[in-house]
Amino acid sequence: MAKTTEIKVRCLNCEKWFDSAIWISERSGFDSATLTGNLQQCPHCGKLTGCNKENFKARFEDGGFLGEETV
Q1: Confidence at residue 69, expressed as pLDDT on a 0 to 100 scale
Q2: What pLDDT, on the 0 to 100 scale, is given for residue 32?
Q3: DSSP character at residue 4
Q4: DSSP-derived 3-state class of residue 30
Q5: Most buried residue, 16, 57, 60, 67, by most Cβ within 10 Å?
Q6: Considering the domain boundaries, does residue 71 fall inside one?
Q7: Which pLDDT tens digits describe the chain residue by residue (71 residues)?
């Protein structure tokens, strides 16, 4: 299984990237996980933002993932 190397969150308020507090060690676990309703405080603007797949950028040993709200 491909190991996770990085998971970043894009703040839905200021649109800056930061490290996710949610960590899933392998791509297979990430792909099957339902991540909704999670919140994390942005270290840049200080506001709470969603911490869900929609605004995640994840890197794995065999590729990556971009959520729908990352562009």
Answers
A1: 87
A2: 87
A3: E
A4: helix
A5: 60
A6: no
A7: 799 999 999 999 999 999 999 899 999 888 888 888 899 999 999 999 999 889 999 999 999 999 988 87
DSSP of 36-69: -S-EEE-TTT--EEE-SGGGEEEEETTEEEE-TT
Beta-strand relationship, 63-66 and 56-60: antiparallel
Residue 17: inside a domain: yes
**Distance between first and last Cα of the chain:** 28
Residue 11 forms part of a structural domain: yes
Q: Name residue, tokens 């507090």.
A: 21
Domain hosting 48: range is 4-66
**Residue 28 resides in a domain:** yes
Domain total of the chain: 1
Sheet with 4-10, strands from edge to edge, namely 17-19, 4-10, 56-60, 63-66
